[in-house]
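pinging the channel bc i need a second pair of eyes. not urgent but kinda urgent?? the chain im working w is below, pasted from the shared doc
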Amino acid sequence: MDSKNILISTLGTVPDIIEETIGFSNFSDNLDFYKESESYSKICESRNSIGFPQYKADELWLITTDKPHMSRNGKEYNSTLEDFEKIKDNCSEYVDKIRIFILQGISDISNETDANTFHDLTLRVVAFAKQQLNGGKLYLSLACGRKTMSADMQDAAYCFGCDALIHVLGDKKTDAYPLSLGNVTNNEALTDYEQQHFDNDDILYCKPQTYFSEHIQAQKDKSQHFYTTYYLNEHETRSNFHILYTLPPSKIKELKECKIGIDKTKKESELEFLKKLPKSDLHCHLGGVLSVAEMIDVAKCYIPNIEEEKKRNSKFRTWCEHIKDERNISSWKSWRKQKSAQLEVSEGLISSVFLLHYKNNISELDRIIFGNLICDNNFRAIGIERYESLGDLQGSALLCDEDAIRKTIKILLDNCRKDNIFYLELRCSPINYTTERLTAENVLQAILEELDNVPEIKSSILIIASRHSDMRKVAESIELVKKMKGDILFEKYFRGFDLAGAENAKSPKEMHDSFLDIMKGCLNITIHAGEGMPSQNIWEAIYYLNAERVGHGLTLLDNKDLTNKFLERGIGIEMCPSSNYQIVGFRDNYYSETSNLKTYPLKKYLDTELRVSINTDDPGISRTNATYELHRAARLTPNGLSKWDILQLICNGFRTAFFPYERKKELIRTVENAIGKLIEEKIL
């Protein structure tokens, strides 16, 4: 069958409009309906935009009602057929074939039933036309008939698509002005409807029905209510963001097939895409959030104290003048403690003076702290001890002043804003930042007030109980929570406890008694486990400490029964790709020399339907951010991650957040709306 172009219009009481419509698409130098129009040049521009006359209509199809028989000069005649004959007389020179589809027995659209049956006929005729094109063009006209007829034609366009939607403006023939409303893309969710059949006659009487339109509406409803995956013939039990299921099957398939993290040449465009996505960060340590440049910015908070101390302390003043001699230190933590004792000043002043010395040479300070780890390819499998030492000039070394703490939170939140983070869980150990003048309560209050100053980023705070500390400090942290109870800001932002630090220091089992008061208070608990230790540590985190989430959890799959328990309880896994790569070491798609390393378990976790999320850990130490972590997650995954996988990871983060139930629902609605905007903007 040869291809053909079909123009379809409804027909009301003014058949002349049909000539105005067909005259727009079908014309020649000798036969041009609009040749004398004052707007002829604009009409030609509109014609050219569609491709007329090259793709002129070969056939004209009309859809109309069965108008009543009329009496004239004593003779009976059918007004519908008379109009049809008039149209053939006026338009046969323009088009090869003219057909009319008549809604049998319905003389006019005067009630809801009539409207429904005409709507059904319009959908059937347009669907049938799509079958007949064989690669040709379909044009639909809104110009003729009642308003309901135009609405029916428009709905048909949105259901099945068309190459041009045409209207004709003007109240009379002399000022007719055709207008192209552009092409319309078909609704790709409509993939399962019955093929239509009509006889090849020029005049067809069609029985009223509503079956086809009801079937089409049912499919549209399914699309609106997240059943699109049914049409992909796929079985998906893992639920992604609900709004994604309103996408047509072809778009969902595209999101599932488009991979990230494989091709280096696409890195920048992939990062640009990832940055636009709404994100959460559930695993972020205050003590490791600052980059080298940001550490210097925070150190500036100490300048008044430094100048004051230099006036009264000659030893300190002399040291400040010769600070350039301090370099190649093997342990910054030991060094600052030693200098603090020697010069009789706080560690905060020692760290700040050293950092400020490089305020005009940040790259040199970067080299001093990171050495050859500045190169990403070298920064892998260095172990937890060396990794943590990279943060020895921030954290408790720097955040022992209220202004410094406030400045750090401001920097962190500003970075979150730039990175499109909608929700942040910040974890810290306030007792580590205390001084003679700064209590743990002061530390917390400063943090909470700064979080409260940025309400657009929903935030929570977790208190860290460290394996490194003796049990008295864990008890102090629990006591701090009891003291702060009743404080308005604390109640607003405090979410629970985290057990952090090197796993080999103390097992979760050994921390059980210390955590009893936390568990009695029904507080949220997340435990660093399975980063560098066997799955036994993860098991103990769940059964001895009642963890609702686990940080890292890299060895979970070694215990099948425990993995099933994670699925049953919906326990979250906070993975941090950069720090996992840097501390433990995993294969990276960008580096062939990492092929001898282990495979990152993230994709297996996703495929197993575990609630795994992606987080930053220590963004300053790892030289990363939330956007880059998603990209690193894809790079550590053989064959990369799909965009659908990325969205699933983001969704898991929001769903496993330690956020009050009602507020979490509101937060997820906000995120769904943000994703909806990305869909509208064709980013997704």
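so Residues 291-393 form one domain. and DSSP finds 29 helices and 19 strands in the chain. — does that match what u expected or am i reading it wrong
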